[in-house]
Automatic annotation (TrEMBL):
The lineage of its organism: Bacteria, Pseudomonadati, Pseudomonadota, Alphaproteobacteria, Geminicoccales. The keyword Oxidoreductase applies. Signal peptide: none annotated. It comes from the Bacteria. The keyword Oxidoreductase applies. Belongs to the bacterial ring-hydroxylating dioxygenase beta subunit family. This is 3-phenylpropionate/cinnamic acid dioxygenase subunit beta. GO terms for molecular function: 3-phenylpropionate dioxygenase activity.
Amino acid sequence: MTVQTMPAHDETAAPDARPVADDLLRRIERFYYREARLLDQEAYAVWLGLMDPDIRYWMPAMETRKRGDLRGGYTDGEMSYFDDDLAMLKVRVARYEQPSAWADNPATRHLHIITNIEAVETGTPGLVRAFSCFENVRNRNEKDQDIVHGRREDLLKIGEGAITVAERRILTVQNVLLSKNLNTFF
């Protein structure tokens, strides 16, 4: 199956995009809620199993631009917080297991809230575009707390027994993240 990559500025479903059937939408919702729980529990090895082998996990840096600027709030190939494939995600996960990962010792407490889930057909069997909003809360030690809000735009591969994320674009509402680090997944 050829994966359809998302254009850099496909921020919303086309107005005439056909929503997926309700049973598939419910299955996608369950997938996202399980993913949030796995991330909250730092079950990263299991979470990696939800990623497609050809995943693109991309979090572009948002830029404040005038409405008339046709580039929009971000541009593919320019600044990004993450632009990872599966190998890089595995490196990031393996880092958590290292004694030198001082930013996670003591452990960070995570909370992933996922809402506004919507999914539309792509015209290719087995591929669905899904949209969701998130709130990512991280708390560490007594006073360190970060909250990141944003949207996720995913290309999901739908199989008989599994759903995998073939592509994820993470768009924050903040154009400057004040976090000391980004030791989290969205």
